[in-house]
Amino acid sequence: MIDTSGVQGGDGLLPGTRRALLRRVAQGQAEGRTPSMVGAVVRDGHLVWAAGRGDVGGREPDADTQYRIGSITKTFLAVLVMRLRDEGLLGLGDRLGQHLEVPEGAGATIAQLLSHTSGLSAEPRGPWWERTDGSLRPGLGDLFGERPQRHPAGRLHHYSNLGFALLGALVEKLRGEHWYEVLRREVLLPLGLERTTLHPVAPHADGWAVHPWADVLLPEPAADTGRMAPAGQLWSTAADLGRFAAFLMAGDEAVLPAATVEEMRTPLAEPQGADWTGGYGLGVQLVRKDGTVLAGHTGTMPGFVAQLWTDPREGIASVVLGNLTSLPTAGAVAVDLITTVAELEPGLPAPWRPLQDADPELLELTGPWYWGASPFALRLGADRALSLAPVDGPGRAARFRPEADGTWTGLDGYYAGETLRAVRTADGTVSHLDIGTFVFTRRPYEPGDAVPGGVDTGGWR
């Protein structure tokens, strides 16, 4: 459970870091002409800093002030879909039509819907769903306008709010109740997110538009979007989103294990355009900045902007919430909160500790192996995990997860999803490693070893 005690002062961060974070939020609120803004930072599972600027109901907002979070709702919904997958109630490769009767989109897979590669139109039938009541689109069939299938399923990344409305209906079909009630029971309450709700609960900010040429405000509607709600309805706080960010980095066995959360962060699609700097996983956005990949999601609704970004390698996350219809710089503020902490207070590596009760048969596998004449090193980690990496220079490095049948499954790189087997001879000694038909031997191209195609009998010369 994430600790939120004492966060307004930034317990756990140095005074200079706290000042730099406050200045960045203050700068973002002032330069963005935002009625109010809240920023927060999570580190190693703890909300270590939060502060607000501006005015909400006559006071400065804080980490408990609700804002509408827009499309961050999609990531919450994706967690529900992945829970269904982990329970065996659906597969990511299943077609939507296998589980839900829909007039369009039945041929798209669950993974394609989660990654915005279903080819469905970006928006439902008009009028603009974010500013109009959901009663205008009471049934699934009412969501589809002309030519709802804009691209062949799986062809390219095309952001689709409509697709997540269908995923919300899928959750309701398989669970037999409203998607938000499922979310509250299975995700929000286990993670302690009591201030994440379908409708606003005080204290909350009101949504505003700011005149482009004058410092005056106009109220924005806060419509109940009905069937479209899974695409952007939720309200939340910086404290709750901080807890959710911690979950997105490390998982929680009560909701989703770390391996499934990591799977959600794995890119499945990249946006179109020659200058792309990000991608999309399973309900999770990805951005690249200065060699670092951040995972999270952005959100906008009339009168609101929201940003949630995580850096799992550093264990740092940030949240930025504001009550303004459009604030293009909000993302920069959120990223800067992460980089500020990482640069001013770089994390310490975890202390090295020896393995407990290492299996002698696994120790036998460690050390140098050769793919042809290229040397690799195999290392044994905690819980029987293995890692393989070239001895020198770039190459196909990968981590491997142990399986119950004595094999390992690749987690990243070229060997992601591939099976590693330790092949033994009749007397039980290890002959070679097989990784998806690639053979690794103890010696480079030694005659008599299990090298596909054999080795020239003349040997090295």
> Could you say what the CATH topology of the largest domain is called?
Beta-lactamase
> Going across the major beta sheet, what is the strand order?
12-13-14-15-16-17-18-19
Counting DSSP E segments of at least 2 residues, the number of strands comes to 19
Continuous helix count:
9
Estimated helix fraction: 10-25%
Helix/strand-derived category reads alpha+beta
Instruction: Output the CATH homologous superfamily of the largest domain.
Output: DD-peptidase/beta-lactamase superfamily
CATH-derived architecture of the largest domain: 3-Layer(aba) Sandwich
Spatial extent as radius of gyration = 25 Å
Shape: globular
Poorly predicted runs are 1-6
What string gives the helices and strands in order? HEEEHHHHEEEHHEEEEEHHEEEEEEEE
Question: What percent strand?
Answer: 15-25%
Number of domains: 2
Distance between the termini: 62 Å
CATH class of the largest domain: Alpha Beta
- Write down the overall mean pLDDT: 93
Written account of the structure:
By secondary structure, this protein is α+β, with helices and mostly antiparallel strands. The protein has two domains: about 350 residues, 3-Layer(aba) Sandwich (Beta-lactamase); about 80 residues, no CATH class. It has nine helices and 19 strands. It has an eight-stranded antiparallel beta sheet with strand order 12-13-14-15-16-17-18-19, with no helix packed on it. The chain has a seven-stranded antiparallel beta sheet with strand order 2-1-11-10-9-8-7, with helices on both faces. A two-stranded antiparallel ribbon has the order 3-6. Strand 1 and strand 2 form a beta hairpin. The protein is globular and about 85 Å long. The relative contact order is 0.13.
